[in-house]
Write a structure and sequence with these properties.
The structure is a homodimer of 239-residue chains. Chain A is α+β, with helices and mostly antiparallel strands and 239 residues long. Chain A is 26% helix and 29% strand. In chain A, 27% of the residues are buried. The structure holds a DNA duplex (27 and 27 nucleotides).
Chain lengths: 239, 239
DNA sequence: CCAAAAGTGTTTACGGTACACCCATGC
DNA sequence: GCATGGGTGTACCGTAAACACTTTTGG
């Protein structure tokens, strides 16, 4: 529809075919050394210069919202096939200081082993933060992040999406630590292992850890087929 | 921001301060005679004349998305304080034939006893449909409705939101029938009653049904305080 | 040997499920 | 009496929770 719009951050008039008044913002979660982290970007210019925020962008005229979010992730991380889900639209009238802009929030789960900062983004522009170390964010991004975390906690108890934060091969203890970190609870190792193994969601790949200073743990993979079957009939993870 | 826009349904140029390219559509659920129903409106003019769709509207420049949805509901049903939650944004590029418009989907639960069609809406313009009798809908509204139903089924197992579809005072059988209808399952009466009573969510108001041709059932109310407490620590309803 | 984490076994209690059965009311 | 739904009792089973215990590996 419209081809010219004011870049509401820089004040420049830009000419392109994106939708005005609608943006996308994405909370990207990662898991490293037992801590849940989010990827934030530092704004280089405009009124929010020097401040951290969630990665975001515009939606093109001929692109679905989901496609725009995937494109954004690819541009930022170089990764395709990231686990990505829409949260909801955020649209308080005053959420954005330079005009009325509604944003569609997403959250993504990334395997840190796959991730590398993409060309064009230096370490000073994009950085992982532990949840507890997240600084003050621009606009309503703190609110969006809070919503993302609450949503992750909810989702992780309804579907085994936590796998998307772990390496391909992982141990049961890693899995348990992931749940402990996200849900902020203490769990019993023996009970956790039995509970998860009973679900038949893990495939024993007959490999073990190497170079650990204790008994090596079995490595598992996630069984996508069982996951699909369970998803169709609905299921629950209460920890 | 912009004050003039083309009414994409009628083709008229209208002058008002609403956001262009963003609308709201709302699935309004009701429960009557053991059946789950939705309120649809018939479009009177424009390219979708004579077809049924979800009630929807524009978002004003100085109004939050949630406020717009509440206003829409009030205009349509005359009701305030309706249970209302956002679903997500729907934005396929071709979802709307006359231009790129993203819509924010909502779903609402109303007590049918409170509801009356508002002045300005005649019976031929707004009508309740049983879920199975819903006709073909305009644009992507069938998809939004499907998403709403799936979401309702999910939510009803995570929080006792079903209460919002029942009268103030209800029997345990009514409650069970509501769950059976929404989840499309058969339940055991004795077990359902014990399970629900154990949750301490129901208040026995020491009243009984009248004029029924069988033993009169106790009437209950929903205990909002216990609900709040349970919500804070998270809870699950598996039926 | 010890430390550290992997992994097994056992006991208890509670909630889900199935189903038999009695109660109250109108016709 | 009979139909209809209201409501109680009970027996069985699976799983969650707590925790004692054994196994494997590096140092």
């Amino acid at each position: 529809m419209k081809k010219e719009l004011l870049d509401i951050e820089t004040g420049e008039l830009i000419s392109t075919s994106v939708m005005s008044s609608i943006t996308i913002d994405c909370t990207i979660f990662g898991f490293e050394n037992g801590s849940l982290e989010v990827l934030l970007v530092k704004h280089a210019k405009g009124i929010s210069k020097g401040k951290w925020g969630l990665p975001g962008g515009w939606i093109q005229e001929v692109e679905s919202i989901d496609a725009a979010a995937h494109r954004l992730l690819r541009e930022l991380t170089g990764l395709d096939n990231i686990y990505l889900e829409q949260l909801k639209a955020f649209g308080e009238p005053d959420r954005f200081p330079l005009g009325r802009v509604i944003t569609v929030g997403y959250y993504a789960l990334v395997k840190r082993e796959d991730y590398s900062v993409k060309a064009g983004f230096t370490a000073s522009e994009a950085k992982w933060f532990k949840i507890k170390d997240v600084p003050e964010l621009i606009y309503d991004h703190t609110q969006i992040l809070d919503y993302s975390i609450r949503n992750l906690r909810k989702r992780v108890r309804q579907a085994p999406i936590g796998f998307n934060l772990l390496p391909e091969k992982f141990t049961l203890l890693q899995l348990m630590q992931l749940y402990q970190e996200i849900l902020n609870v203490e769990m019993d190792k023996p009970n956790f292992r039995r509970k998860f193994l009973r679900m038949k969601l893990l495939v024993d790949i007959n490999e073990k850890q190497k170079d650990v200073s204790h008994r090596a743990a079995k490595l598992y993979k996630f069984d996508h087929k069982t996951y699909q079957k369970l998803t169709e009939k609905g299921f629950n993870f209460e920890f």
